[in-house]
Design goal:
alpha/beta, elongated
Length: 362
């Protein structure tokens, strides 16, 4: 294909390996991973890159599914991108190491992987993807011109979810990619529901416990600051007895919304811990900064107006908050800082409720 010409599908609509132009291949090899990443919208779910500790508002995310194409020939990426007709955000990597970096930071929904690549081949890339906890669950589809049953079996044994020959008709390739994206989307939704409190829509205790272990391990490894806030709605039983459980649910939902309104940083996690208790996980946050945030949450809750059955509930809502900052304890998985935050929360209750108590967990 002449340099500068637009790639096209072959006459039968299949995707063939075409000879690369030297300029396009070298351009892509010299294009840094950072440049590639900066040209797309990415959303890291769960275990993404470490972010700074500034309390920045989250930006709108691209809602299209992301497909990472790993192929040493840029022209094959262009053909696939044309075949998919803008339905997905397509990301390109031309060799193994940069592909692994992109996969772990951008967390694509599906990976299309060429088996034949110089240096680190597709089988080595697949093994590395499956060995990394952050990428092990991403579906990988081999797309290659390699023939032979042994090759296909090897790919499946390493964890590939499908095997598509580049000579396959374009409609078949598109249909199989669409099906795998739809399956991944459904699996992600099931996983999200398993980690979400159905009443408030925020994280549940299971998700909090998982993220506490992860973030506390990162805190211990990097020697960064780390804080936790525990919160309990004051006199909630009396509120339920006076206004009924429907209004009690409305109160819990309103408190969850108030906490989220103040806790805007994408690295923080707000969770319903159980009943009328909430917990906020604050990576890379000093005790002083956590106390400041707790006071803002307390103020936001105090300004709530609870609406139940179309009527305003007159009774004011307050909360007691306990804050703990951590100095890492060797061998501890985060339980000590959580216990300390709980102790401080009950100290706030004993001191008269509607207040913040805090100290460093030792």
């Amino acid at each position: 294909m002449p340099h500068g010409a637009s790639p096209r599908l072959s006459p039968n609509g299949s995707l063939h390996r075409l000879p690369p132009t030297s300029s396009s291949r070298e351009e892509q090899r010299h294009k840094s991973t950072e440049e590639i990443a900066s040209s797309h919208s990415f959303h890291a779910i769960g275990f993404g890159p470490e972010l700074d500790s500034g309390r920045e508002e989250q930006q709108p995310m691209n809602t299209k599914a992301r497909i990472l194409v790993i192929d040493d020939e840029k022209v094959n990426f262009d053909l696939l991108e044309e075949m998919l007709q803008g339905s997905y955000v397509c990301i390109f990597a031309s060799e193994g190491p940069s592909a692994l970096h992109l996969a772990s930071t951008c967390l694509p929904d599906v990976i299309l992987l060429d088996a034949m690549m110089p240096g680190m081949d597709g089988f080595e890339v697949l093994s590395a993807l499956k060995a990394d906890a952050s990428t092990s669950r991403i579906p990988v589809i081999f797309m290659t011109s390699m023939e032979g049953l042994d090759t296909e079996i090897r790919g499946f044994e390493l964890g590939a979810i499908d095997y598509i020959k580049k000579s396959a008709p374009a409609p078949l390739v598109r249909a199989r990619i669409d099906n795998h994206v739809a399956l991944k989307t459904a699996q992600d939704e099931l996983a999200r529901q398993a980690m979400t409190d159905p009443l408030t829509g925020i994280a549940n205790r299971r998700q909090f416990d998982q993220m506490l272990r992860y973030e506390y391990a990162r805190h211990a490894r990097n020697k960064t600051e780390f804080s936790v806030i525990m919160l309990d709605i004051d006199n909630f039983k009396a509120f339920n007895d006076s206004f009924g459980h429907t209004c009690g649910d409305a109160c819990i939902q309103a408190v969850a919304g108030a906490i989220q309104k103040v806790t805007a940083r994408s690295t923080d996690l707000v969770a319903r811990y159980g009943g009328e208790e909430f917990v906020i996980l604050l990576p890379e946050t000093s005790l002083d900064a956590a106390i400041c945030l707790a006071q803002k949450i307390q103020q936001q809750i105090g300004e709530l107006t609870i609406v139940c059955g179309g009527s305003k509930v007159v009774q004011a809502v307050t909360a007691s908050l306990g804050v703990a900052g951590s100095h890492h304890v060797q061998g501890d998985a985060g339980e000590s800082i959580l216990r300390h935050a709980d102790t401080q929360m009950y100290a706030a209750k004993v001191a008269g409720r509607n207040r913040v108590c805090a100290s460093v967990a030792t």
